[in-house]
Amino acid sequence: MSPIPHSPVTNHQLSYVIAKKLAIRGAIWTFVGYGLAQALRLGSNLILTRLLEPELFGLLALASTFLIGLNLFSDIGIGTSIVQNKRGDEPDFLNTAWMMQIIRGFGLWLCCVAIASPLARFYGDSRLSWILPLIGLTTIFAGFNSTALHTLSRQIAVGKQIVVEVGVQIVSLTVMIVWAWFSPTAWALIVGNLVTAILKMLVSYSLIPGYRNRLVWDKKAAREIFSFGKWIFVSTAMTFLATQADRILIGKLLSFEVLGIYTVAITFALLPQQAIEQFSMRTILPIVAQVAHLPRQELRAKILNKRKIVLASVGAIALFLASFGDFLILNLYDERYVQAAWMLPILALGIWPYLLFETSRQVLVAIGKPNYQAYGQFVKSIHVCLGLPIAYSFFGVPGLIIMVALNDIGLYSITAYGLWREQLSCLKQDIQATLLFVIGLAIVLVGRYWLGLGFPFSQMKF
Asked: Is 447 exposed, middle or buried (0-12, 13-18, 19+ CB in 10 A)?
């Protein structure tokens, strides 16, 4: 009897099997780590909101917004290039990226110094003139971070990254709380941010034994980073306007106190978004980068199969916040933050289009097509910069909050078009998932009303 022939294992199949194992392990670490991080963040937030005035949260939120803006307006995708580029393990490539990172860090701090006084005059608060340069020092420390952080992302070694981030977070939050206990001023938040940046920088050099960075300038590596990063730069610049303009406008149109209340609401509303961003960056991008050579239809089928599980998990969090977010605020915070109770459900509901976007956009980045995301962020930035002032002028604060909740629809639409162009469309799955989400929301809200609990917007008094 002749032996039964065995089907040879192709490179494509082997790559997928390895990628699948890494994805499962990465997903577990990501969600466990994210859960721990958010539990720490929530606990510290509850303590700090009792020790500090809402105005201080608004003030630091505004300063942080401009710092984020500077980071985004200068982002050329150094970390993403290390994960995505074929040369991402070569010492010259890594050291060139490190040198670029250092130069960028000093440049960002100088920008913080330059804009601090004009912003203080614009907002009529002299404290911004010294707060922004101080928290801007974090960009210098971040510039000296070892590229080992990005190498771990490339290797999908999520566990080490999570341990570092949670450990650093515990120390920095402890510093904030202790400082605020003895001196309830803005310094508690400032010092906490500086401690975070310094500790992360120091720990980054111990992550991979024998891994060292040195100053190198490889012209070819620099060209490759700039070439890939040009669309990352455009995308992140637009991302600033799209995701941070709400805080800038609220700080100017209303007050730092309202901005502090809004910050509490948006912090909860963004929980599912941040969870999926962590999973997307740590797992989806490096995994898809490894199997991007697969035929498009095969790649699309594998993406859709795993994506539905992620959407169901994170969508459940969004559904809970949209249905019962007001109870969270009313039971966890004092009366100074009561208006965040009606903001949270509206903002959480608006996160759904972003979840559809984030679970698919890294596929376009992995195959070298980040331009669609740049176009989408441009559309979103127009929506925010024009829509928010108009909505506020006609409908006040409720109109402004609703407009914020609608701001991801254009971003999702452009990305969906890009996926269709690249033969990776998820539209059918998106429609099915959205219908299930809407049906689930309707059932929960009707049940809540039937139980005499009313709707989540009853605290609205603006």
From this structure: exposed
459 is a domain residue? no
Q: Using DSSP, state whether 52 is helix, strand or coil.
A: coil
Contact 107, 142 (CB under 8 A): no
> Which residue carries 């078009």 as its tokens?
417
Name the burial class of residue 395, with classes exposed (0-12), middle (13-18) and buried (19+) by CB atoms within 10 angstroms of its CB: middle
pLDDT digits (tens, 9 = 90+) for 403-433: 989 888 888 898 889 888 888 888 899 999 9
Classified as helix, coil or strand, 8 is coil
Report the alpha-carbon distance of residue 46 to residue 269 in Å, rounded: 16
* Nearest C-alpha neighbor of 25 from the set 150, 166, 154, 158: 158
Nearest C-alpha neighbor of 400 from the set 240, 270, 273, 252: 252
CA 300 to chain centre: 24
- Nearest to residue 80, comparing CAs of 150, 9, 148, 12? 150
What pLDDT is stored for residue 202 in this prediction?
92
How many residues are listed for the chain in this entry? 462
- How does pLDDT run across 133-145, given as a tens digit for each residue? 999 999 999 999 9
pLDDT at residue 460 is higher than 50: yes
Sole residue written with tokens 């797992």: 283
The residues, any chain, with a CB within 8 Å of residue 208's CB and separated by 6 or more, are: 148, 151, 152
| Cα-Cα end-to-end distance for the chain | 84
Q: How many domains does the chain have?
A: 1
User: Buried b vs exposed e over 91-104: b needs ≥16 C-beta within 10 Å?
Assistant: eebbbbbbbbbbeb
Place of tokens 């059918």: 428
pLDDT digits (tens, 9 = 90+) for 297-345: 777 877 777 788 888 888 898 999 999 989 988 888 888 888 889 999 9
Structure tokens of 61?
A: 């939120």
Per the listing, tokens 């309707």 go with 442
DSSP code per residue over 138-192 = HHHHHHT--THHHHHHHTT-HHHHHHHHHHHHHHHHHHHHHHHHH--STHHHHHH
441, pLDDT greater than 90: yes
Tokens 């980054």 belong to residue: 204
> Percent of the chain having pLDDT more than 70?
82
Q: Between residues 123 and 41, which one has the greater pLDDT?
A: 123
Do 79 and 145 form a contact (C-beta atoms < 8 A)? no
In a domain, 460, yes or no: no
Quote the domain boundaries for residue 178. 11-450
Give tens-digit pLDDT for 245-276: 777 787 777 777 788 888 888 888 888 877 77
Give a yes or no: residue 311 inside a domain. Answer: yes
Residue 70, in any domain of the structure: yes
pTM: 0.63
